[in-house]
TrEMBL record:
Recorded GO MF terms: DNA (cytosine-5-)-methyltransferase activity
One GO BP annotation of this record: DNA restriction-modification system
Catalytic activity: a 2'-deoxycytidine in DNA + S-adenosyl-L-methionine = a 5-methyl-2'-deoxycytidine in DNA + S-adenosyl-L-homocysteine + H(+)
Keywords per UniProt: Methyltransferase, Restriction system, Transferase
Pfam families in alphabetical order: DNA_methylase (PF00145)
Protein name: Uncharacterized protein
Matches recorded under InterPro entries: C5_MeTfrase (IPR001525), SAM-dependent_MTases_sf (IPR029063)
Organism, as annotated: Pseudomonas savastanoi pv. glycinea (Pseudomonas syringae pv. glycinea)
Keyword Transferase: yes
Domain of life: Bacteria
Transmembrane helix among keywords: no
Length: 59
């Protein structure tokens, strides 16, 4: 995961570390989104029919 070995860093090391610190590995974000989708869909469904929905703090 992450940047390929052929990736070139055209800035100073300091700037590169800042940029890498702000980066997110896309497969991780895809997995987070995959886990969230059913919960978001459940919230939308309950908002449509007006019934309250209590979600657990920890799954």
């Amino acid at each position: 995961m992450g940047f390929p070995d052929t990736f070139r860093i055209p800035v100073s090391d300091t700037q590169a570390y800042r940029q890498f610190g702000n980066s997110v590995v896309m497969p991780v974000m895809q997995e987070v989104a995959r886990i969230m989708v059913p919960h978001v869909q459940a919230l939308i469904a309950h908002e449509r029919d007006g019934t309250p929905l209590a979600l657990p703090l920890f799954a």
